[in-house]
Design goal:
elongated; two-stranded antiparallel ribbon; mainly alpha; 154 residues
Length: 154
């Protein structure tokens, strides 16, 4: 942020007095946060919302994307992932998880026989009996028509 403010002062004095050093300080802060945290979208949104100036959105986005790219080439992980790794805490790594998608299909984990469904109006006695004979704790509620549209869960 200080480096951005210094560049802003230099541009203000050397190029044009209309250049605001505070905007450059804000861009420097955005670059620092994006490079350290690797959270591009949240940094851009927080800075634009915090200042209330939509006109700085494009410069903030450019600075944030460039800072993240440069930081990614220097070190693979951001500060949060590095601390988690250092403390050996469990976390989900940023890897391609496509190979896990086909491991289990829905039909493999569905209950057999199929789960009983409830209508929009049921008697309490019928519900109590259903709960006694079933190992499930919830039942889908569907409309009574041919569409059997899902209404909720009981």
């Amino acid at each position: 942020a200080a480096l951005g403010g210094a560049c802003g002062n230099l541009f203000h004095d050397a190029i044009d007095e209309e250049i605001s050093p505070s905007t450059f300080a804000l861009l420097g802060m955005a670059a620092l946060l994006a490079g350290v945290q690797r959270s591009t979208t949240s940094v851009a949104i927080i800075l634009v919302e915090g200042t209330g100036q939509v006109k700085i959105l494009i410069p903030v986005i450019l600075v944030v994307v460039i800072a993240r790219y440069v930081a990614q080439t220097i070190h693979k992980y951001g500060v949060y992932e590095t601390v988690i790794d250092y403390k050996q805490l469990p976390y989900l790594p940023h890897e391609n998880l496509k190979r896990y998608y086909d491991a289990v299909q829905v039909k493999d984990i569905m209950s057999k026989p199929p789960l009983e469904v409830l209508g929009p109006r049921e008697r309490v006695g019928d519900l109590v009996e259903l709960l006694r004979r079933s190992s499930h704790n919830g039942f889908p509620v569907v409309d009574g028509g041919t569409t059997r549209r899902f209404l909720g869960l009981a």
